[in-house]
Amino acid sequence: MSAPLHGTEVLNNRDDILPRDSLKYAVVLLVLLASMAVGGYGFSTLEVASMSSGTRTILLSVASLAALAVFTRRTPYVLCLGLLACLSIVFAQVWPALVVAVFGLSATVLGRWMLKQHITADWSVHLLVGAGTLGTFTGLAAYLPINYPWLYGVLLSLPLLLGRKHVMSTARELLSLIRTVRAAQTPIQTALDVLICGFACLYVLVAFMPEVGHDALAMHLFVPSQLAQRHQWSFDASTYVWAVMPMLADWIYSIVYMLAGETASRLSNSAFTLLVAWQIHNMTLWAGGSASSARWACLIFLSTPLAFAESSSLHIESAWTAFMLAGTLAVLKVSSFTPETTERLSQLLMAGLLLGFALATKAVTLSVLPVLLVVLLLQYKAWAVQGIGKTLLLGSAGLMLAGATPYVSAGYLTGNPVFPFFNAIFHSPLWPNINFEPPATFGRGMSWDTLYRMVFKSPEFIEGRIGAAGFQWLLLPTAVVALLLSGNRKALLIFLVGAGAMFVTFHSTAYLRYVFPSFALFSVILALPFSNGRLFPRSLAMVACALLIMTNIRFIQAATYYGDIKPSALLSQAGRQMYLSERLPLRKMVDTVNVLNTGHQPVAVFASPLMAGLGGDALYASWYNLKWKNEFDTATSPSELARRLRQRQVNWLVIDLKSLPQARLDLLLNVSTSYARLGDLDLRKLNVTHDEHLLNPELSSLEGWSLTLPSSYDPSRKILTVNVKTPATQRVEVTPGATYTNSVSARCATTATTGRIQANWMDAQGDFIAASIATFDCTTQWETHEMNVIAPANATSVIIYASGHTDTPLEFRSLSFRQ
User: Where are the domains of the chain?
Assistant: First the structure.
């Protein structure tokens, strides 16, 4: 029988059961009840859809890991790694997984070497610093035709060879982790770990699926595929309006794409999403959260439909958010919360580097940097110390070196450092002198009901369905009130950054992907107050979070149309091809074009701009390429359209027969012949015609021709008499790289001699480039002689000659210069 409790112990136990401040407790509960009422109304308007493949995958993964956790003593994370390794083998994705793992290890070793011992940082920060550096090198290499797999094999191998000790220590730590039995932790924590691992399985499995996303195939996978096939990127903003935008994430994807293709790029994107979850875990602990609340924060983020949407296709927001979150935490540590002054200053240096990488990934960073600057100014007493001048200089240098490259390049190539944005200020000739505006669909600004509309009217904020933003926003008011009442200054700073970034970004456009870092920060805010038993009962907090996670899982695919997981597409190459044929036949059409377009000439695309993998340039008649769009829109006849296509060196056209107005479609059909058909997609070849470029090729008059005296022209017979010293010439425009046939009909005027076919190529300044000459022996009979020529790359015009090869005269009755 236990001893009776003493009075002091009774009071202590009562403190554990009852809140210390009943008024604060009541306020929090009141706000929660109000939020529940609003949420209840919103849920009453929903139509519950059928269970998605994402939801089924999570449930199956959690059930499998839970069973393994019960029957083994290993940690859920080790079991998850083992399960993912087995799935990689089953689905034949071992090589992409290995390449991504090697990239991660190489980046971590490089980042650790760069930071050395001067800056205390987590392994995830080392990885980000290394990944950002490798991506920056790739972006610089993209200007030159040097991008081959061997180069990137060497690039990833060097840090591993030079940092062998760290590689070996990492291998030993991993081996030790695999051997370690599950440590003493609460059943709740184990259950949370299993749930986190279940989401990790979903994020990896969706990366194994073929890419069908719009942004990915139009840009984020298009860039790596062009780099792999053409060995450099053109940075031609007149062909692709986004060609000079910040693309650090695309350069990172290009590294693994070069070695292991599309799946490796998609895996690296999913890895960045999981890396963000780890950073959320660390930030929650830094802000005073418990081990359990850190896990809840991870789950809130990973269960958010938007987070799954970022991994369902090759987007860049996960990589951007990883850099932003690491840089934000470094800024937050530059405060009185960090006891040692030297550590504060080192965090200031690291913040500059990480935010520079974020700036090189996405220009929206420019909207968030002022918010972080305000936070720094609020904490100025913590870092305004002796020696700060040098630190600020180095931090600013890190920010500029890591982040300024794409803006300097864009300014040099287009005249606008943020091309095509703010062109009313910079006046780049490649875009109209108006500011590039985001789609009006998503609106601007914030209002009192923004959180409600984000949840229950999500299509106003993203290309998705209701619930795309996740349902955690219903709990945010309660969390914020609890946070304010708790007096947690660290959490208040996190909230300031997240809310400030959302407010400033929504002022330009209320688009959810642009505030993805705020989603991560608010996951921390949501988990922190509910772990404080003084303001909120722990049991009720667990129930609320569990319901939230379950609801998010039910709507996990609300923010994407690309996240389906089809076992048949994972198990065999035939199933993968069948999936693409049914889901996105345009990808199959790209493969067909590459087989036929052996010269890698531009392809005119009158369909969705989903041409990743194309061997040549894609000419889009859209805002991607305003110049070509104008040329296409103003072509009023088949002959004019055919001429413009030939000037662009186009042989192949990809047409969506249902996407064009009938008049435009008729013009295209008139100048081309169908070669392959997939549903409404038609691959057509430009008709072979022989357009004459010379004026008066039959010499019906001398208009267009220039004679050198004493050469003569007989208007009755329509015959030119010339020799080598007295030629007749005509100048015409040409298309660089185009093929022409230069032919003449000639005979000897007096005695047998040698004639000449001659074309002198001229550049835009009218300077001579080169001459194409072929000779022939004439007779007294009219004979036709021809020469096939290719216009030099810098030629804009050609001078065609009617000439002899000697002083003996020849007669010409026709000349031709046909394309």
Answer: 51-403+437-554, 584-686, 706-818
